[in-house]
Amino acid sequence: MSLATRIIPCLDVKDGRVVKGINFLNLVDAGDPVEMAQIYNNEGADEITFLDITASSQGRSTTLEVVRRSADQLFIPLTVGGGISSTDDVNQLLRAGADKVSINTAALKRPELINEISESFGSQVLVISIDAKRSRSSSGFEVTTHGGSISTGIDALDWIKEAIERGVGEILLNSMDTDGTRAGYDLELIRLVRAISPVPIIASGGAGDISDFAKALESGADALLAASVFHFGIYRISDIKRDLGRKGFTVRQGNQIGQN
Amino acid sequence: MIAILDYGSGNIRSAQRAFEKTKHQVIVTSDYQEAVSADGLVVPGVGAFGSCMKALLKIDGDKIIKERQQEKKKTLGICVGMQILFESSDELLNGESIKGLGIFPGRVVRLEAPVIPHMGFNEVEVDETSKLFKGIEKERFYFVHSYAAKDPVVGANSYCDYGGGFLAAIESQTVSAVQFHPEKSGAAGLALIENWASGL
User: Fold this and answer.
1) Which of A38, A150, B68, B73 lies in the 20 to 30 Å Cα band around A115?
2) pLDDT confidence of residue A257
3) What is the pLDDT of residues B2-33, one digit of tens each?
4) For B73-125, what is each residue's pLDDT tens digit?
5) Cβ–Cβ gap A260/B11 under 8 Å
């Protein structure tokens, strides 16, 4: 008996529409996040992440509607990140049907937000998203914002330790050096964070070759997030799971008992 | 009719939609009479053990669950909604130990594994007398928790293993509970919900 590795496709959503589409299937509506999430669900995704890159408040209410529609059709965990800065935001998302929320910049600005959310809703709903980049910082990695373009001067490991102490339930570890390169996850970063983190680590950024996924697990990741390799149809989720299974990792075979 | 007990913040919508997949009418309510009289009551988990108990007491949820038990009406606890059925928990609220409902004896304890919370799809060793898992004995279910009950109770006891065995599901004549989230466990979870609902 053992826990299965989670494979998590990530969809960027703007004003209620998916920005980076899935290119490998004939979709009725290539921009509908719920339809895309459904496809990934059918392909064996263990969880779905929506990253809301909307800037306007009107766009935010659209996102809530997307979450509601997802909860109506999707019976696997849903994480929503982007623009969350208060317990009210979290409450609205959970009420709409999100299972977890991921916070990033707002927690850097006001770390108490972590305590507030975990005390109100439990640490299991709270994912801290870290955009780490190699630097001269003491651990060799610092925290950045705005897609890696702005340095915070905060050491990545120091920030992760603080976030765990304050009550996050999970770490979404994005490497800004490997993000979008498809050159593989940053294994050194994963190993460093694993050494100090008792909470689950989701590796993110850089997945390109099928062997990258097993390497991230060997380095200490608990779950694997990817976007473009799935969206562009380079690999199917089932390809990744088959490869991991062959290498001795535990994976869940999705929908064994048919569709509901 | 199935009532989903609404007593605080959390993702109730997915549970509502999942139970609506059964043939039963589903209501989300915090009303005493509605909750007591429903054919089936679902008690979802909200936050941590202590905050969950406090929120439950505010709407007399303890009395609702116990009254239903006396009237032999079925109740299903989910996640922390399972944990609060026990006497107490290792999980403190501001350093204070909060009493559970004590419908089942024993204490909810912290899991002992290198990585906590236990998060993701895991297997369940199903009790051979289980009705909840009928036809879905070999499936995985979605867990997300740091605490669990370990000692067997009266009825069917199904176990999961994460840094040691713990109760994944318990089934007594009226009160049943699952530590995992059936509403988040894909087709297998919906099948489990159907099994419970068909016994109402």
Assistant:
1) A150
2) 43
3) 999 999 867 889 999 999 999 999 999 999 99
4) 999 999 999 999 999 999 988 888 999 999 999 999 999 999 999 999 999 99
5) no
Q: Complex ipTM, two decimals?
A: 0.93
User: Dihedral, CA atoms, A125, B19, B45, B74, nearest 10 degrees?
Assistant: -170
Residue with tokens 């003491």: A138
A6 contacts on B by Cβ (under 8 Å): 119-121
Residue B178, pLDDT score:
98
Distance of CA B159 to the CA centre of its chain: 14
Domains of chain A: 6-258 (3.20.20.70)
The alpha carbon of residue B39 is apart from the nearest alpha carbon of chain A, in Å, by 23
Whole-model pTM?
0.95
Domains of chain B: 2-197 (3.40.50.880)
Residue B6 Cα to chain centre, angstroms: 14
CA–CA distance, A256 with A249 (Å, rounded to integer): 18
Residue B182's beta-bridge partner residues? none
SS3 A101: strand
Would you say A142 and A132 are in contact if contact means Cβ atoms under 8 Å apart? yes
Alpha-carbon span A248 to A157, nearest angstrom:
30
A223 touching chain B per CB within 8 A: yes
Which among A98, A170, A255 has the least Cβ separation from residue B11? A98
Residue A172: CB atoms within 10 A of its CB come to: 28
Nearest Cα to Cα of residue A111 among A131, A135, A85, A89 = A85
Alpha helices in chain B (DSSP H): 13-20, 32-37, 49-58, 61-70, 80-83, 186-198
- Cβ contact B53:B46 at 8 Å: no
**Most distant CA pair in chain B: distance in Å?**
44
Q: What is d(CA A84, CA A166) in angstroms, rounded to the nearest whole number?
A: 17
| Closest chain B C-alpha to A25 CA, distance in angstroms | 22
- Residue A242: CB partners within 8 Å, gap ≥ 6? none
